[in-house]
Recover the amino acids of this structure.
């Protein structure tokens, strides 16, 4: 569990300081949506038996909360930062983040902190990340139309 806390929560939040100094609005707009998406998808995947996080606790929410509020949330913040504030092309940003996060999960399977069940694989994982980042992108566009961002 300590490995998950350090790699999945502490380190991502340490990198987030850079983005926060430049665009604090991201943490009050994108981060809550990203955390909610991550929490829902992770709990759904665990509850219907698509994957397992190790080590497991008696409270299933504890298994993923540091990841949901850490690496998944911060990756969406960085995604938004590159896409909206740095004006990078979605053609490069989407593959970078989808493949990057799928790669993180691949490493987690190698470290035996994540195991997929027979109904799930890395292709589905990449589709789930694509859907999550696309949802964040739609939220960003709506917030931009509402003039929330400068």
């Amino acid at each position: 569990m300590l490995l998950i806390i350090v790699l999945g929560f502490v380190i991502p939040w340490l990198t987030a300081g850079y983005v926060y100094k430049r665009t604090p609005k991201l943490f009050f707009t994108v981060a809550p949506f990203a955390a909610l998406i991550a929490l829902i998808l992770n709990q759904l995947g665990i509850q219907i038996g698509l994957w397992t996080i190790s080590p497991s606790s008696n409270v299933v929410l504890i298994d993923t909360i540091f990841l949901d509020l850490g690496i998944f949330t911060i990756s969406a913040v960085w995604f938004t930062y590159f896409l909206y504030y740095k004006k990078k092309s979605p053609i490069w940003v989407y593959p970078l983040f989808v493949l990057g996060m799928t790669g993180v999960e691949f490493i987690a399977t190698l470290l035996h902190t994540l195991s997929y069940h027979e109904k799930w694989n890395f292709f589905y994982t990449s589709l789930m990340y694509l859907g999550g980042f696309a949802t964040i992108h739609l939220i960003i566009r709506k917030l931009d139309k509402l003039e929330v961002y400068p």
